[in-house]
Amino acid sequence: MDLGMTPRVKELAAKVRQMVSEEIEPLDAEFEAEVGKHPSGDRFQLTDRQLEILDTLKASARAKGLWNFWLTDSDKGQGLSTVEYAYLAEEMGKVGIAAEVFNCGAPDTGNMEVFERYGSPAHKERWLKPLLNGEIRSAYVMTEPGVASSDATNIALEARETAEGWVLNGEKYWISGAGDPRCAVYIIMAQTDPEAHKHARHSMFVLPADTPGIEILRPMHVFGHDDAPHGHMHLRFTNVHVAPEDLILGRGRGFEVAQGRLGPGRIHHCMRAIGQAEKALELFCKRAMTREAFKKKIVDLGANYDIIANCRMEIEMARLLCLKAAWMMDTQGTRVAQPWISQIKVVAPLMALKVVDEAMQVHGGTGISQDTPLAAMWTKIRTLRFADGPDAVHRRQVARAELRKYSNEKI
Amino acid sequence: MDLGMTPRVKELAAKVRQMVSEEIEPLDAEFEAEVGKHPSGDRFQLTDRQLEILDTLKASARAKGLWNFWLTDSDKGQGLSTVEYAYLAEEMGKVGIAAEVFNCGAPDTGNMEVFERYGSPAHKERWLKPLLNGEIRSAYVMTEPGVASSDATNIALEARETAEGWVLNGEKYWISGAGDPRCAVYIIMAQTDPEAHKHARHSMFVLPADTPGIEILRPMHVFGHDDAPHGHMHLRFTNVHVAPEDLILGRGRGFEVAQGRLGPGRIHHCMRAIGQAEKALELFCKRAMTREAFKKKIVDLGANYDIIANCRMEIEMARLLCLKAAWMMDTQGTRVAQPWISQIKVVAPLMALKVVDEAMQVHGGTGISQDTPLAAMWTKIRTLRFADGPDAVHRRQVARAELRKYSNEKI
Amino acid sequence: MDLGMTPRVKELAAKVRQMVSEEIEPLDAEFEAEVGKHPSGDRFQLTDRQLEILDTLKASARAKGLWNFWLTDSDKGQGLSTVEYAYLAEEMGKVGIAAEVFNCGAPDTGNMEVFERYGSPAHKERWLKPLLNGEIRSAYVMTEPGVASSDATNIALEARETAEGWVLNGEKYWISGAGDPRCAVYIIMAQTDPEAHKHARHSMFVLPADTPGIEILRPMHVFGHDDAPHGHMHLRFTNVHVAPEDLILGRGRGFEVAQGRLGPGRIHHCMRAIGQAEKALELFCKRAMTREAFKKKIVDLGANYDIIANCRMEIEMARLLCLKAAWMMDTQGTRVAQPWISQIKVVAPLMALKVVDEAMQVHGGTGISQDTPLAAMWTKIRTLRFADGPDAVHRRQVARAELRKYSNEKI
Amino acid sequence: MDLGMTPRVKELAAKVRQMVSEEIEPLDAEFEAEVGKHPSGDRFQLTDRQLEILDTLKASARAKGLWNFWLTDSDKGQGLSTVEYAYLAEEMGKVGIAAEVFNCGAPDTGNMEVFERYGSPAHKERWLKPLLNGEIRSAYVMTEPGVASSDATNIALEARETAEGWVLNGEKYWISGAGDPRCAVYIIMAQTDPEAHKHARHSMFVLPADTPGIEILRPMHVFGHDDAPHGHMHLRFTNVHVAPEDLILGRGRGFEVAQGRLGPGRIHHCMRAIGQAEKALELFCKRAMTREAFKKKIVDLGANYDIIANCRMEIEMARLLCLKAAWMMDTQGTRVAQPWISQIKVVAPLMALKVVDEAMQVHGGTGISQDTPLAAMWTKIRTLRFADGPDAVHRRQVARAELRKYSNEKI
């Protein structure tokens, strides 16, 4: 169980770290500052400068061979193991737009994986290719406003079969990335067979984003932010037609596709959260060592040594657990690795929230202001505690795996 | 130690609760939605509709005799005890603009207290009177960007004495309310005697907000929000003149004024945070009882019963501690009550954050979206953990009070 | 809601405190050291010196009028309210045998309450009188080895009706106090009607401890200790006869008696636990202020200020919650007060464990040794987390009370 | 960074696990039950049956080649890496006497390491050889009653140089194993040069346990237990002579020896604590799946799924951190590995306490009784939070290592 950095990854990680801090970080704030400056006033239109920033950075990354790291075991990607990728994703987590720059951003990576594994040759040509090139973006359309989406069997958007294929009706929300005008394709889960067994009710479809009948009702806010231009959109589907060949894998197999898709996506979020925790701890230490109160360095006041130690221990443990889950995926496959993925899915966001919270606290007002990245980290990481399944559901999975050791019954 | 509701307060609380839910809550969202709609495009200008909402609600509150509750033991206020006020403030905490509607909002209450206790007759006439009438607003100008303001002796904005009075030079930030054009007066702490004993270095001044030389550099952001039109402004003072009669209490007595001001302010924040926790727990229960997953009500899944019980116990204890601190203030004065104020200052925001966090989690994505008040509660309460002194400083005060029981030495 | 000390209690508390520290504490260790020194070698026989210690102290307490405080609202006791009693019980909690010295020890107080409320005149004469005089002791016989006693409806010891009364068969364990040879009477819960509704299956009986057919199988150990001479015995009942007049309240009403008995007992344990936490925090502070390491007082190292503050805040809150639960009992009765009793039943032991744990830690090895009372406190308080109902059951009660606010359904 | 089980260790672990459960566990309770049954009445004399149990088991272990695993990289041991040993120590932790059976018990392993690294040929012949053969036992004599031993520079037992060698005077306590009559040799830290630099004041000596002038004052109690026959003794040294050749490594180098000794010892305790946590979680699951209350399996009540999941995640993370610390020791040496050893030294006992606590709670009274091993685990693991350095000192080390990344100053 080698969880360390391979020589190959050591070299790549150094390059990624350098590019993140030297090229991407300086432009990240400018990218953010451009939001809302499109002549149309539409916050979900990218400005010319935003497009330029992204194109320049992507070109630079690609030129350096820093591209599509997430695509494990494949000719198209770098053939890195998930363990290896973890070390790189951690670095990318430290700055907002970095993951996209290396073409490793959500939800595209998960969607590309769906196309790669389950897509038809036509899907691969039309969608996978430009996605791998970073030319278009995509969205994964699953969560719905009316039901508890933590239980995916609740998904209710209707897909009715017709002579020409399928017709979709219903609403979806929290569709991340659907605000971006570059988002060209959706992978959408819909209910095709409401009477079937709960794991056979749904099917997964490919849907061009400009298909008629799709309406953006509003952007969902994340702690008051619309996260433009990416966005988390609330969509309405009215008689939206899907071609028969855009059904993925087969009717009633939507749940299967969803499960296959989610493993890697979940762990990638965790890797990046660990990177953010590292960055927050660095900011904590630097602030505490340079600021003074009551005639002492802040680091020498109160419980700060204990807090720093606790942060270090929690980061260290979360990283090791993340690496083990990655190693399980690499060696046993996503299905067997599931309880470990659930473990890190619970652990990493909670840990990162704690570290960021402490870092904010030591900064006082600065910690929640625009003068550090901590405030944005705190609210963004908070969303991971229910995105891709709330903590409670993942804890349940871990417990069931544990209890199965002692029982022949189904648990 | 009667911590219960007096008959008088039972009646007032019912009226406040009713007005908050029936009159204020419905208009609160509209008030927020108006932000940024001023013809000038300036988010820090109130629109006509905003002014109308506030005026209507204030008039209604005043007509009902629901006004200036915070002003204890005084002819000008309601003469309520702090314990009594706690039950009312809790209700006001549940909706954003409610405290202002009853003329009980920060930072005005603290500033009015300064005028009441330490102001000259001229100060009372010019500033206290319109503040008590809710005609103007005010700001308290203390925190500075360059120093750890958790240690108030660090305050460094220079006040130089001249023939005509004082001249101020320096920067301040996180000046809450200074964005609002109705903010007419500042109470400002400045360093007059850098060589004096650390508690005699500072003086407190009254300063009309439109005095020349005051420049708004930028609004500080709270988790990415500018909190317009209230705002938390970063200000620069360049050769700002203060009249000699606008020195409060006396040269070198700024620290004393600051201490006297902070006790009530701190506990008012706590009372409102408890109200928010109550509201969050209510939302938790209602959501968990009506939403289903895995064929069960969410409340019957996972650890939800335990979570609800823990929230109830923590709210109950925090409220009792808050009431005891209030009772100490009422019976022993703010100075003796200090360690209890510090206790509740630590306890209430942490408790409220925990309850709101759980309520968010049970709501899934809805919990962090614009569809519930939880997201705004979470980020706003978070600021209380360092506003008016970070947790660490208050814990230190509590510990020192404890250790003094066993020592004759100065601790 | 007056939760303060009345003048009467202020005086009594001072007397109790003085007697505990001056008379009882010095003899407590000697009492403990006598365990096992009976000539028979039987650890569950009191030595002459043990009897002498108890008799002397009890006589002293009674002579001072410090007796039967727990008996609220009655001619036989002191007529204190539960709130008043709380302040006295806290003092008694600080030393092992103190509660018994003031005739306020468990399980006698609960049993006396059963006799007082539900006993026949003959029961009162034969058992209640000598118990009130501290001449005999008693046991409450409920928990069983074979079933989860957290759900009292599981109780299975059989009581079969015969012509001469009842015949008991089965096992009971964790019968506290049944080891003491002075224990003269049992109150025992048995199943009389297995087919009845779950709350009507059981009946409560009075049983002289020397009735034939009762066998002590073994003492149950508490973290390896037999707690002699008190003991927590595992008993077997073989054809044990009970007279018809020794059925309490009525057939099938055992559950009702049990519920009535438990409220006060539960809160008394909590009051004493709070006293122990106070004592532990005192030991913490004194140790930390006098011991040195790394050239500093220990109190000035690490997070000790924060730990002390947290302990103080948690004690303060638990005490207030305990007093509120007591006030609810006094003003609304045990039944309405139930959710508050459950709250403090969860909160007080957890809080006391935390404070004692921190006090142990600052003492290093001394903290777990025979040189401080901390080790014994830690293990004894730990038992309170399931005695009289485990935390989980009490949390469930609190949550149900909360949810009932929002539902007409039975929860 | 291979943290997995090597094929060699997989095989050894299976053998150890089998021997622990099939041979050792059945005799462990009998060994305990024999304590105090020596004809002399002396609890610190082993009975014939105790000796027989140990001899039989040791012979069996040795015959199977399950011996001296701890001795890494050496001809005398098995040459296992620390990572490999971790998997075996975990198994040994599950039953009280198991570590001794495999000759892997504390404090002998640490003492053997001192002899191996720093001992003279005569030391190796006289003491190391029989220790490696499991024929004698040893004690490590460091902690003192009068000073905070968390700061080893406080150690004050006097070693005065004379013409014939050294003379020791002073007291030591918590000398684990010194109660056992088979304990033949002490390694003792004494102050030789009180005026020297704090890290050069002490020297380490070898001392036959039967040297005149050594007096056992009392056994220290661990939560009321004397842990006979092993014991944790309080010793007085009166003019105890040490031969000049029994000074280890050199005058003033005691601190160095102590540091070298402690790394492996600390991590071994952690490995065993992880094994205990695993066992506790197993007991938790089995109990919760077989016991019923309120018509449900206990596992389906309350927060039990969440608790089980949290336990699994915490065990998993602690094990990984322990393995990483072991790997650091293997690859970088004890000195560089120090911050990682400190990390796991804090993490493992806290984690194990939490898991054991939850397991106790789900067992109700049984959990703290003689009917499960949980009560003994809980109190024993608690001692690890200050043995070999309290948590606070280890957290301080971790924080200092962290801060050093950002500073050139000495921290």
Automatic annotation (TrEMBL), chains A, B, C, D:
Q: Which residues form the Acyl-CoA dehydrogenase/oxidase C-terminal domain?
A: 252-401
Domain Acyl-CoA oxidase/dehydrogenase middle residues, every copy: 139-235
Name a single GO biological process: fatty acid beta-oxidation using acyl-CoA dehydrogenase
The record, for PANTHER family, names:
ACYL-COA DEHYDROGENASE FAMILY MEMBER 11, MEDIUM-CHAIN SPECIFIC ACYL-COA DEHYDROGENASE, MITOCHONDRIAL-RELATED
Protein family membership: Belongs to the acyl-CoA dehydrogenase family.
Where in the numbering of this chain does the Acyl-CoA dehydrogenase/oxidase N-terminal domain appear? 8-135
This protein's record includes keyword Isomerase = no
Which Pfam families does the entry link to? Acyl-CoA_dh_1, Acyl-CoA_dh_M, Acyl-CoA_dh_N
Q: Which cofactor does it need?
A: FAD
Q: What is the organism lineage in this UniProt record?
A: Bacteria, Pseudomonadati, Pseudomonadota, Alphaproteobacteria, Rhodobacterales
Gene Ontology molecular functions: acyl-CoA dehydrogenase activity; flavin adenine dinucleotide binding
InterPro entries recorded = Acyl-CoA_dehydrogenase, Acyl-CoA_Oxase/DH_mid-dom, Acyl-CoA_Oxase/DH_mid-dom_sf, AcylCo_DH-like_C, AcylCo_DH/oxidase_C, AcylCoA_DH/ox_N, AcylCoA_DH/ox_N_sf, AcylCoA_DH/oxidase_NM_dom_sf
Protein's recorded name:
Acyl-CoA dehydrogenase
The annotated subunit structure for this chain is:
Homodimer.
One GO CC term, this protein: cytoplasm
SUPFAM superfamilies xref list = Acyl-CoA dehydrogenase C-terminal domain-like, Acyl-CoA dehydrogenase NM domain-like
| Keywords carried by this UniProt record | FAD, Flavoprotein, Oxidoreductase
